[in-house]
């Protein structure tokens, strides 16, 4: 790890190593810089040879079919679009996963910009839900769908509203 510059990926990797996960079972999507390398990496994940795969939504979004053995997904940030959260969840909550139960963890920092981000995603999801259900968009919404409620709960945690 480069001591002059902090990398969340390197930090997580060092903690996983300290926790006893062998280095060969931890991979970064950024290292698969060709389609062939990506296919090889995804095959290792599906076979259980790689237990932890780290990457961004952009790098591990559509076309990432590694769900066979996934047990948990960890979101370290809040994206600007509700669809990106759906895309992340779609990597694990998916047909073909051998695990009956899967877990999605979302990390936030209390009293930080995270609260604003989750508020923004919540508002966008409310608007999208109103459009998709043919309800006219208005300033207030009595009927909140499950996704918007989930985003609201995360936002409340960021704000210290437990």
Task: Report on this structure.
This protein has 162 residues and is mainly α. 17% of the residues are buried. Strands 1-2 form a two-stranded parallel sheet. A two-stranded parallel sheet has the order 3-4. Helices cover 40% and strands 9% of the residues. The longest helix has 19 residues. Helix 2 links the parallel strand 1 and strand 2. It has five helices and four strands. It is globular, with a radius of gyration of 18 Å. The model has no long low-confidence stretch (mean pLDDT 84).
What gross morphology would you assign? globular
* Overall radius of gyration: 18 Å
Terminal residue distance: 36 Å
| SSE run | HEHEEHEHH
The strand order across the widest sheet is 1-2
For the largest beta-sheet, the strand count, sense and barrel status come to: 2 strands, parallel
| Uncertain residue segments | none
The total of helices stands at 5
Strand tally, please? 4
Helix/strand structural class: mainly alpha
Strand content: 5-15%
Q: How is the quaternary structure best described?
A: single chain
Helix content: 25-40%
The pLDDT mean sits at 84
